[in-house]
Write a structure and sequence with these properties.
The protein is mainly alpha-helical. It has 14 helices and ten strands. Strand 6 and strand 7 form a beta hairpin. Helix 2 crosses helix 3, helix 7 packs parallel to helix 13 and helix 10 crosses helix 13. The longest helix is centred in the last third of the chain and has 17 residues. It starts with a helix and ends with a helix.
Length: 267
């Protein structure tokens, strides 16, 4: 285990092992309180959007329209960025002088601060995550007389469920074929965005379109995704695996398969 004095004496990047400790504390009595919530780019994961829109009692579409900006990533797939206030400080829209108004449902990037992931394609493929401590000159919390291990901090900040949900999402975003073949089809980009981020619209797509005429979904699962956003998100990722990665993870109804074959002239 690395102790605090050892960490102070090290230069350059220090990648933490699970039992390694670091210094950090944050509270409203610090002069730098909420300073880290200004003029920063925060990419939101699908699970971030799910938690935040529910905390605000908003639809996914309403939340995305009001609080986010959509960009196209290197793979050609949409990514969502939190929209900061349009003022000189570019503050987070959810931060007041007393702190974060959605603290219990704050995004992954806010939870993990002051740590940052140190990932490579190899670590991503192995499903391993490593972190280092960010060098933030204004952050007095990094000088606080409080130490805890990486494992303790991850648990304390409620990170495990975010990691679990992001692992599903990364099945798509780290797929080697998709990375190599940049997506340019607008329809695919729109369907991906709906399934990942606009879950309320995806739910309507499942129940109000011909979706259920084509796919054989168990009634128990259908009942769950009617009201459970996490179950719906997991189902949406499964649908993307089927459609984007050609994974055999969803059952097509025999009559739908027969109709498709007839359409294509396949006997």
């Amino acid at each position: 285990m690395t102790n605090r004095n050892e960490l102070k004496g090290k230069q350059g990047l220090v990648v933490l092992k699970p039992d390694d400790v670091f210094q950090f504390s944050c509270n409203a009595n610090m002069d730098c309180f909420t300073r880290c919530c200004r003029d920063i780019t925060i990419f939101l994961t699908p699970y971030d959007v799910l938690r935040m829109k529910n905390a605000l009692h908003m639809s996914s579409g309403g939340f995305l329209s009001k609080y986010t900006v959509t960009l196209i990533g290197d793979t050609g797939l949409p990514v969502v960025v939190l929209k900061m206030r349009d003022d000189d400080e570019k503050r987070c829209p959810f931060v007041k002088s007393s702190g974060c108004m959605i603290y219990a449902d704050r995004p992954w990037a806010c939870r993990i601060y002051p740590l940052q992931p140190e990932s490579t394609p190899l670590t991503e493929k192995a499903g391993k995550t490593y972190y280092s401590v960010m060098n933030v000159p204004f952050c007095l919390g990094l000088e606080a007389d409080r130490t805890l291990s990486l494992t303790e901090y991850v648990e304390e900040q409620g990170i495990p469920v975010y990691m679990e949900m992001e692992a599903l999402y990364k099945k798509i975003t780290t797929n080697e074929r998709l990375i190599k073949e940049k997506i340019t089809n607008k329809k695919i980009q729109e369907m991906y965005f709906m399934a990942c981020y606009d879950l309320d619209r995806f739910r309507r797509f499942v129940f109000d379109s011909t979706f259920l005429d084509r796919f054989d979904i168990k009634q128990q699962q259908l009942e769950k995704i009617k009201s459970d956003d996490v179950a719906l998100y997991c189902f949406a990722i499964q649908w993307l695996e089927y459609g984007l990665l050609a994974q055999n993870v969803m059952a097509v109804k025999p009559e739908a398969m027969a109709a498709k074959k007839a359409e294509l002239g396949i006997e």
